[in-house]
Amino acid sequence: xxxxxxxxxxxDPLQGKKYVQKEGRxxxxxxxxxxxxxxxxxxxxxxxxxxxELHFKNRYWHDNCFRCFKCYTSLVNExxxxxxxxxxxxxxxxxxxxxxxxxxxxxxxIAGDQNVEYKKMVWHKxxxxxxxxxxxxxxxxxxxxxxxxxxxxCHEHKFAKTCAKCKNPITSGGLTYQEKPWHSECxxxxxxxxxxxxxxxxxxxxxxxxxxxxxECVAKKCAGCKNPITAGFGRGTSVVNYExxxxxxxxxxxTKCARALAxxxxxxxNGKIYCAECPKRL
Length: 282
Hints:
Blueprint: E1 19-22, E2 25-28, H1 29-36, E3 53-56, E4 59-62, E5 80-82, E6 88-90, H2 91-98, E7 115-118, E8 121-124, E9 142-145, E10 148-151, H3 152-158, E11 161-162, E12 169-170, E13 175-177, E14 180-182, E15 201-204, E16 207-210, H4 211-218, E17 239-242, E18 245-248, E19 266-269, E20 272-275
Antiparallel strand pairs: 1-2, 3-4, 5-6, 7-8, 9-10, 11-12, 13-14, 15-16, 17-18, 19-20
């Protein structure tokens, strides 16, 4: 008499029938589907003996349930990634989802897209536009202002200071004199046209002069030493004026005894300057 070959669970004979062996035990298809089958993590239904099963890290799927969560493409024999909530993603959707989002349109910037980066923010090239004129800045020059960005032209008209001389915007550099802004190339000597930024100069009736041109063209000549009186440019900052002539304070002295007479009594005799005492000895 032959040995019985029965289902481990229901004891129905398996001779001549389809059966499944699981963990060393034989069972009929009905018992396998009811007791032993793994549950598909996607559809939550048992993966029966007649179904093809896929598994990864103790998770199980029907073969027709193993699809990309994003694009629904079958991932059988395809590369995939298991992400949050046990959802599988194809490689293309994973790359797209992990890509940074454009600050302008909020869509993903995928590999190969032209983009603009600034302070850990990123835009599609065509989404990086001027806040004023809305024209595409792209990879061109721009000026940030808070959360806004301006092209060079709009920034000049909206924010840049205007040069006191040429009235054009100052986009970089420049200097300030008496609270007025100037282009460096506009702040020049009225005579020799050299730039005066960072150099000694003087202003005469709204005109500016470097030291050399002031001495040569503008400064009065001392009646004593005949040299230019360059007040503010070194020795002799004080000037003595008498009638139509001027002196350095250190040149205004008695013709006879050479006593300094600035801020002192003096006498003019025959066109010459004397102290109060010397004319008595003439």
